[in-house]
Amino acid sequence: MCDSLVALGPATDTGRTIFAKNSDRPPTEHQVIERHPPRRDPGPVRCTHITVDPHPTETIGVVGSRPVWQWGFEHGVNDAGVVAGNETIYTTLDPRGFPPALIGMDLVRLGLERATTAHGAVEVMIALLERHGQGGTGHEGADRPYWSSFLVADRGRAFVVETSGRDHAVEEVARSRAISNRTTIPAFDATHRHPRQPVDRLVNPRWEASKRVLADEPVTVEKVMRHLRSHDGSDEGWTVCMHVEGVEATTASLVVELDGDAAQSVAHWLLGSPCRQSYVAARLGEAPTPRTLSRSPFHDG
Q1: Strand partners, 119
Q2: CA 268 from centroid of its chain's CA atoms
Q3: Which residue(s) pair with 266 in the sheet?
Q4: What pLDDT score was predicted for residue 300?
Q5: First-to-last C-alpha distance (Å) of the chain
Q6: How many CA atoms lie within 13 A of 210 on its CB side?
Q7: Longest pairwise C-alpha distance within the chain
Q8: How far apart are CA 159 and CA 128, in angstroms?
Q9: Residue 294 pLDDT
């Protein structure tokens, strides 16, 4: 589970693009925030389950939040000012039984390492999706595969990408946009929405809460952080800041302000529950040091 939202400059108080995401994962799973500088890959790149061809030129430096057992990122931002995150979604196509391939977190990191714009990152992700497909578990120690949707943004543009196996749809964001754990692009949703997923109870309340925040213009970093800390949604713990005991919890969060001047862009990182931990700010190209973050990555902090 996860919730992501973006407001482009015309919708914000500072004219900066604001991107935000809560990462909801198994409650005891560790995440780490780490920087990977530019590199030249001498051979195939080992992702979570498979290897892919190396990038033909030097990669772009990136900072991301990664479940420790995975190669990919739940969310991250690169030195060029591109930010991305993924969401679990289910569709009419059952992901169980598909062979190991790329998972959503791998595609986030690959897009960020290989593109200097949001549009370029989307092109990278789609090309890799079409070539390698999706498959394999997204949870350590359990066979829990799923498809992914993505929110990708830079200082001037943002895109929603939704997938079902190798099938996909892309929608450019006009002003602001929120996504959650369901298909949301109208034509793609009409064709691929999972017929039995309880979105009305577990997903739509969070998605609608995010849309209300974006409708309250101008969007500000403070409003977005307050939203990510909130318990809007289901009474059963399936809330924006999630607390479903033994099942799912918010274990990391990110808010990024993207400015036309990269030196003025700021990423706000958090490990643990946003309702109990504090964001730590860092400039693009920098990762917060472990001692500045929560000592515990778990939701009960």
Answers
A1: none
A2: 14
A3: 257, 283
A4: 44
A5: 19
A6: 24
A7: 51
A8: 17
A9: 60
Phi, psi angle pair for 126, to nearest 5° = -65, -40
Place of tokens 């190798």: 166
Q: What is d(CA 104, CA 73) in angstroms, rounded to the nearest whole number?
A: 8
Compute φ and ψ for 118, nearest 5 degrees: -65, -45
Query: For 159-184, what is each residue's pLDDT tens digit?
Result: 999 999 999 999 999 999 999 999 99
Radius of gyration of the chain (CA): 17
Q: For residue 219, what is the DSSP state?
A: B
Token pair, residue 44, equals 């195939």
Question: Considering the chain, what is the average pLDDT of its residues?
Answer: 94
State what percent of residues in the chain have pLDDT above 70. Answer: 97
Per residue in 191-202, pLDDT (tens digit) is: 999 988 899 999
All domains in the chain, ordered by first residue: 2-292 (3.60.60.10)
Return the active site residues.
2
List all residues 6 or more positions away from 116 whose beta carbon is below 8 Å from its beta carbon: 60, 78, 80, 82
Continuous segment of H or E residues that includes residue 248: strand 248-258
With vertex at residue 91, the alpha carbon angle to CA 189 and CA 224, rounded to the nearest 5 degrees, is: 65
Confidence of residue 301 (pLDDT cuts 50, 70, 90): very low
Band (188; pLDDT cuts 50, 70, 90) = very high
Residues 254 and 135: their CA atoms lie apart, in Å, by 26
Task: State the Cα–Cα distance between residues 100 and 33, nearest whole angstrom.
Answer: 25
Beta strands 83-89 and 17-25, pairing class: unpaired
